[in-house]
Specification:
By secondary structure, this protein is of the alpha/beta class. It contains seven helices and six strands; from the N terminus they run H-E-E-E-H-E-H-H-E-H-H-E-H. The strands form two sheets. It has a four-stranded mixed sheet with strand order 3-2-1-4, with helices on one face. The longest helix is centred in the last third of the chain and has 14 residues.
């Protein structure tokens, strides 16, 4: 499985990681030399991020400290200031299995300020019985916030697991709820 996954993953020539302040704590932003976002980690743990990258791309991946493209930082700042669509402009390259990438693309279609259950997302993807697989793909999302996995909730409306913790998920949904009524 690992080598199968690596066969379709484009290896960038450079990985840059930047610590960036968010309202609820530092984020780690990772971009490639083409300016595409490759990861956004909510924990601020460089070791954890490097381990995830090596698992996904192989042992030769090296992350170096540096600045991600200004466009990424501007879009994130605008999102946190209330322009919820600003993150839609960020080019992403999350690299997963074909199914994961299908789920991640679908996540970007959930409008800011709205939520969707795992089952509803599976139905949107044409496979209503794939709720668990959708949940696993959602949990493997390497680009939190920008690929808005926080917008997926339990069938009963409950907040379910989130890699950044339920408090951050609650914060993100409340933040979007404050500004979503302003959207036209």
């Amino acid at each position: 499985m690992h080598s199968e996954r690596l066969m379709h993953i484009e290896q960038p020539d450079e990985w840059v990681v930047e610590r960036w302040p968010a309202p609820f704590g530092d984020l780690l932003l990772v971009a490639d030399s083409s300016g595409r976002m490759r990861a956004l980690d909510l924990h601020g743990d460089e070791t954890r991020l490097a381990t995830q990258f090596r698992a996904r791309y192989g042992a030769r991946v090296m992350l170096r400290s540096g600045a991600v493209p200004e466009a990424i930082r501007r879009a994130l700042a605008a999102y946190f200031e209330g322009d919820l669509q600003a993150i839609d402009k960020i080019a992403c390259k999350p690299d997963g299995t074909p199914f994961q990438e299908q789920v991640w693309a679908a996540l970007r279609t959930i409008p800011a300020g709205q939520t969707l259950s795992y089952g509803a997302l599976a139905t949107r993807l044409g496979n209503p019985k794939a709720m668990r697989a959708v949940g696993l793909a959602n949990g493997a999302n390497p680009i939190a916030i920008v690929i808005p996995c926080h917008r997926v909730i339990g069938a009963n409306g409950s907040l379910t697991g989130y890699g950044g913790g339920l408090e951050r998920k609650r914060w993100l949904l409340a933040h979007e709820g404050r500004f979503a009524p302003l959207l036209s």
